[in-house]
Amino acid sequence: MAIFREASPGDETAIATLIQDLAQSMGETSPIAPDFVSTYLAFPGCHILLAVEHGQIVGLLSYSIRPNLYHSGDTALIEELIVRSTWRGQGVGGVLLEALLARLKESGCVEVSVTTLPDNQGAIRFYRTHGLMDEALYLEKHL
User: Fold this and answer.
1) What is the pLDDT of residue 117?
2) 9 part of a folded domain
């Protein structure tokens, strides 16, 4: 089973490649580059948990933490949960998510949220299995 750790300098290229692979699997492209991964990791409140097997990153969960006025406490947003295709179905995503939930609870976060496309039934089932529920409608506009 993979080990789990925080992303650190030197992981940028592998992280960018994993995100590009995900985009390509969906018929899309991502402008992600290692330099932007460095910028992300240096930004306060932005984090990436990694699943690593034999020195290779096989999964990641990126998230951000910020204060929330309504809840009067910190909340977290899961941004990306990616598991390399050859590692899917082996529990890597679930362990990454459970590790995050434990960290957030321990740090005093009061809420965690995630978005997924409405037709991504696998992701919806996955998050519901781990206790996340439908609470809001998420709207966005690409600029």
Assistant:
1) 87
2) yes
pTM score, whole prediction = 0.91
Number of domains in the chain: 1
For the chain, the three-class secondary structure string (H helix, E strand, C coil) is: CCEEEECCCCCHHHHHHHHHHHHHHCCCCCCCCHHHHHHHHHCCCEEEEEEEECCEEEEEEEEEEEEECCCCEEEEEEEEEEECHHHCCCCHHHHHHHHHHHHHHHHCCCEEEECCCCCCHHHHHHHHHCCCCCCCCCCCCCC
Range of the domain at 13: 3-129
The pLDDT averaged over each successive group of 10 residues in the chain (143 residues) is 87 96 90 96 96 93 96 96 91 94 96 92 94 87 90
Return the pLDDT at 1.
63
Per-residue b/e over 19-38, b at no fewer than 16 CB within 10 Å? bbebeeeeeeeeebeeeebe
